[in-house]
Predict the 3D structure of the following.
Amino acid sequence: MAVLPLKAIERLLRKAGAKRVSKGASVEFAKYLGEFAGEIASEAAELAKHSGRQTVTEQDVLMVRKIRRR
Amino acid sequence: MAVLPLKAIERLLRKAGAKRVSKGASVEFAKYLGEFAGEIASEAAELAKHSGRQTVTEQDVLMVRKIRRR
């Protein structure tokens, strides 16, 4: 899943202190971010089910974050 | 940093199996994703500097991922 356009990722890396950014760095970053987002989404959806709810709430996302410790 | 619009996050959560998604869940998810993206960007930029390079490359992003083990 392409979470962010490559130009936005390049901007983010520059804002973080990068002087230059290779195309491959942005592509790999997008892949990493997309996979991360997919994992968090799956875990939050599973937590809601686990709790007998049909609605994913803020607390599910916070609990995923807590369990992952970051 | 708002990495993704809330509507896109809601779609992602639904695709991951959520029946319903609260507004707060999408807001918290966006925050989490934005902070994660910022951390990865900083670490990749630091790794490039650490390696005496001006350009952040694909290898920097892959190394961040490897060190984080996910």
User: Anything to note?
Assistant: Chain A has three helices and two strands. The helical segments of chain A are 6-15, 23-50, 58-68.
